[in-house]
Amino acid sequence: MKLTLAKLDMALFQELATLQIEGRTKPKERVINRYIPPSGDRGPRYSIEGCEGEFIRLNSNSYLSLSNHPALIEAADEATHSCGVGPGAVRFIDGTYHYHTSLEDRIARFVNKPAAKIFNSAYTSNCGLALAIGSKQTHWIGDQLNHNSIIRAMRISGVPSNHKGIYKHNDMDDLRRCLDEVGEDIERVVVIFDGIFSMRGDYAPIDKILEICAEYNDRFRDGVITVVDDSHGIGAYGRTGRGTPEFAGGVPDIIVGTFGKAFGVNGGFIAASETVIEAVRQKADTYIYTNPLSVADCAAATRALDICDSSEGEQLLANLKARTNQFRKGLAELGLESIDGPHPVVPLMVRDTEKTHAMVNRLFEKGVLVVGLTFPVVPKGDESIRFQINAAHTESDINYVLGVLSEAI
User: Fold this and answer.
1) Domain for residue 2, yes or no?
2) Which member of 63, 294, 295, 314 lies 3.0 to 4.6 Å from 79 by CB, making a disulfide possible if both were Cys?
3) Backbone torsions φ then ψ of 40, nearest 5 degrees
């Protein structure tokens, strides 16, 4: 008898229809088919399949604009010709190449930790970390605006509701409340938070978090472990591009990050003590049971870190900061509302769903790609447009986008 997906298709069709009614479906994906290099006073542009004209991206996580850097392309090409396009196995079955271990050594040094382990993404890094350091006597505490990967990590690792606390966004008094409520049977506490909150561009007050957690450390057998997911921070700001820990003046016990944003490549990492990293290697399912990054990704990411530590990296950071300040100042001069912060994620608070959609469409018509966030993705009254400044954006680019906004308000 032939089996079909007819019944499942019917059920999923109804679920998708519900998402559509609730306004939670994703729009059709645009397909970028060409990268147009910078020219004159213009930064890079992109062409989109089925659309006329060229587009400037203000919705890209590639904060340092390294994705098309000739040195990264050269490194990826050289590694591919040396070792091939894929590892052929998971890490512990001879799928580890020297490009993997070199990147792990390099990122550990970059964030000043004894050791690091790389993953296919920061998402799988967070899930792997939770599996590695969690236990039945572990209590998890997180910021209410933490990324989905952190929330999912706690669910995957089986954290029960009575072993979990959520504090109000960046509210240190509420963090203290969560710590006060931890049960006496708990052996270790993990306080985990984003460095940069990607929808808002604001940052965790790491120095204050560490100070509060230190007060409670002796209360638990294994102490209070602090974890930052600095995926949007590392490389993108701080005096030397070390991200939120450098900017906020405190280094958590464990740093999770990505090579897929400021560094312009792919992959994630966990950096911590050698013992924590060995526990990750032995216990993290998302590391053990999947092929690692390609050697091309590893070589390109390593080269990106080298650039960040060079005079070129300093120049990229300086231009990124200048263009971010230019855009923030321009919004203020137009009388538009944003959320203060030094990071190149700059939200425009529109606070109206229809107006947000209209402004996003107007920007698209003028060749500007942005992300609109509307109800029910965000609460009513918090509707916004997220702009992301990149280091290859020029003064002329920013002035152009501000000009479009002045016509759209």
Assistant:
1) no
2) 295
3) 60, -125
Q: What is the pTM of this model?
A: 0.95
Q: Is residue 48 part of a domain?
A: yes
- Residue 86 CA to residue 272 CA, distance in Å, equals 27
Neighbours of 338 (CB within 10 A): 18
Task: Provide the pLDDT for residue 55.
Answer: 98
Domain range for residue 45?
A: 22-54+311-408
How do residues 88-106 score in pLDDT, each as one tens digit? 999 999 999 999 999 999 9
Strands (E), 73-175: 115-119, 138-143, 164-167
Is residue 271 a contact partner of residue 227, using CB atoms and an 8 Å limit? Answer: no
Instruction: Give the pLDDT confidence score for residue 154 in this predicted structure.
Output: 86
> Of 308, 332, 348, which one is at a domain's C-terminal end?
308
Total domains, the chain: 2
pLDDT digits (tens, 9 = 90+) for 146-169: 999 999 988 888 888 889 999 999
User: Would the pLDDT of 2 be above 80?
Assistant: no
* Residue 65 falls inside a structural domain: no
- Least confident range from 55-59, 152-156, 297-301, 334-338: namely 152-156
257 and 334 inside one domain: no
Same domain, 221 and 283: yes
**Average pLDDT score over residue span 13-27:** 92
Residues 195 and 247 in one domain: yes
pLDDT at residue 140 is higher than 90: yes
On whether residue 9 sits in a domain, the answer given is no
Task: Sheet with 254-258: list strands edge to edge.
Answer: 115-119, 268-272, 254-258, 224-229, 188-194, 138-143, 164-167
How many C-beta neighbours within 10 Å does residue 314 have? 14
Question: How many Å apart are CA 188 and CA 146, to the nearest integer?
Answer: 20
Q: Buried (b) or exposed (e) across 146-172, using 16+ Cβ within 10 A?
A: bbebbeebbebbebeeebebbbebbee
- Rounded to the nearest 5 degrees, what angle is found at the Cα of 38, between the Cα atoms of 37 and 43? 125
CATH number of the domain enclosing 206: 3.40.640.10
